[in-house]
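protien #1 (seq + structre)
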Amino acid sequence: MNTITTNLGAPAEDATHHSPSRATAWLLYEQVALQAVRIGSHITLAWFLVPDVFGIVGLSQAVCFTALMVFDLGITTSVVYHPDGENPRFLGTAWLLQAMMGFLGTTVILAAAAIIHLSGGLAGFAADSAWGATDLLPVVAAQSVIILLVGLRSPSAAVLRRRLQLGPLAHINVIASIASVVITLAWVLITPTLWAMVAGQISYCAIECVLTYRLVPQSQVTIQWDRKIARDLFVFGRWCMASSSITAVANKGDQFFLASILTTRELGIYTIALKVIVLIMNPVERWSSHVLIPVFVRFRRNVAEAPSRLKLLKLRILILGALVAGFLGLVLIAPFMVQLVYNDQFHDVAWLVQCLGVSGFLIAAGLTKERILLSTGDSKRNMISTLARAVCMFTGMAVGYHFGGYPGLVIGLAFAPLPWLVILLALVDRYCSWPSWVDMAAIMIFGVALALGLFIMNG
């Protein structure tokens, strides 16, 4: 049997599982460090590179992200919630499946890029649109290796998430991020082209993949194939694949559509605005997946007890309060921030950040509640929720574009998540341990505070 290196450590839960507060502290350290590095990198790159570069690389990232999600069997989530998630036989089968899906995803992207290139490119799109850019296909082909690198990561990362031992993962992400930024900036100083950003992104995933095997206590897990375990992973994963595919479309559908009507320069400005929103969305998504799912799993074991229900209610109020404060501050300071740190090429970023910030708050509020479904193993309802979000997003885009063109589309995106939140409340009602009015109150507070803040600033 072949072996892989991972960090299973001792099996005793009381010795290996960390508290949610400790996990949150590690995640806070990670995100503060990562965001500081990313902010500095984004600002520096914006002064060296033209907006067109951000448009092409951002669109390529969207394509590869979609492929990554399409071939996602939810292996990490399975390890976190499954009773046998730390069993070496389970992990060996899960790793093999994950690696196979990563290889398949990269192969499909490379084959598609080759076929499109040999057939003369993406016919039907205007030459000046982002989809018509000549550099797009080579960049997509290069970035497709990221899918394979993600599939080859050690299963130790999933075990650490299951135990809420996020310290090693935080160190890995910070080290990989700093190294990739150094590579990107060095490349830009030598030759300021889009390949600097591509090299940085690939190096990040490669370094992260290697460190998941090297930066942890070592033990051996046999790579093997267990048909029963594989069947369990596929049963859970089939809905995860559907949900992940829809999530990718919901998250990147705006870029795919805008790439057909905007130039690479205009799409680049939109991409920069998205990167600003990601400064808050990334920590929210990582915390909700790394901490909330294991926390919900623990609470679900004794959810009928009053202390557990009260703790969940307090946790939800804290989450919503943090989201209101974070996104409200971002939306209100966006014009001053853009004027301070970006050059004149990116002045349109300000109003885009304000609109996308509203959408970001609504989506973040929903995602932190949607994790309840995955913590129960109800991947089917999670898929339905994701589908509802995608439908609402595209409906908002279509209505907005019909009545207001590009600006109307962005405004439609801002408010599109509202009907999805109503659907989500119904989907999680059977599992939820706090009243729905808590979420509704947070949305109303955000709306009133935002309107008041904009009135004062513009008055």
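ok now protien #2
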Amino acid sequence: MFALARLLPAAALLAAPAPRPANALPEGRGAPQAGSARDARPPASTPAVEFSSAGRAVGLQEAFELGLGRSSELAQRSQSVAEAWARVKELWAAVQPTLSFKTSEFVQDSESSRDKPEVKVSLRQPLFTGLREFLAVRVGKARGAVAELELRRAKDLLFQDVAAAYLGLLGYHRQLAIRQALVAIISDRIRELKERERIGRTRRSEVLAAESQRAQLVADFEQAKRDELDAQESLRFLTGLSERLAPSGLPEAPEPDLEGALGRGRDRADVEARRRDLQAARESTEIVRRGRWPIASLDGSYYFKRAETQKDIRWDLTVSAELPLYQGLRTAAQVQQAVAREKTAEEALSLALRKAETEVRKAHADLRGGLATVAALERAVSLAEDNAQAQAEDYRLGLVTNLDVLGALNTLQQARLRLTAAAVDVALARVRLDVAAGDVRR
């Protein structure tokens, strides 16, 4: 969306010969003559700068999908989800009957006693426990939903990390393209200045000023190359790719409605997870309170083998009931603990809502400010281009010096670098806003 034009459309003007400025040394007076010591000195070395953004093309969506399969954190959270739902199955077992096969042989060290063998199948069915088991199943389902929501939020945050690495690498590619173009223009400028110095139409100081500027530009270019390599490694780490990567472009970054983003932020995955935590805490409190309720159960057995005195009794059933009367205030203490956990869950939900709103507002403000910055920098780049072209025309007419032209080029470069950085920041700000609102468009 923020296409980078060539560094200077009027660059060709800078290579054109210019008339002798008024402050240039006249020919034959103080000018170096052909064959002199200065003329025989070899030119200073000007190492070439090279960079190519070529590599394996990768888009943001593809990078994210690769990151999903690469993330160890997501793999761990996926196992947590599986564990939570397996726990729900375990809780369901508490309301179902249990059936077991039992065998025993009772032997005493007495001549008058007889052995008492027993082989039976036993059944136990809870009849009433205050519906605590059903409440426990609901708590388990809430915990499973929390695990799924936290996994979803982790995916959103992974998307933000991948987008940051992707856009960072793209920004360095564009920055290097700008720096490489300017170094090439300055190099052409130096060659012309040296030729003009040889014939006495340019001062030596102007050549040295241009060479100094070029040396600084080369140093900045090499530092940017180092930073680009770091950005490459960051994106490779997240995607698992080993080859050199070339981001394909910037995503669109329109400004969304703040109120809509705030509304979506209140329902994002981590906030909803805290709501489920509160629901589970309230139901857990109710489970503890029902510890004072009576319980009833049914037990039955069918006998395949019994002692001689009972061999004709093949089965029996037992219905039992129990009402807790006094447990040393254990239940009351458990209720107090559960209520405290419930209040903690309420505070966690309140914090999650406030955090989500703050993140949405900050991300929205960053996006709005970034869009305004980009618009201002686009205007600045346009003016810098006009100024550079005007300086080039004035240089041809002998109205300005080479230093003025170099200053205009430097101003243009800085404006373009700032525009590139601002464009990347805007794209990342939109990603952060989507993540803050829980509205990641994958």
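The chain has one domain: 52-436.
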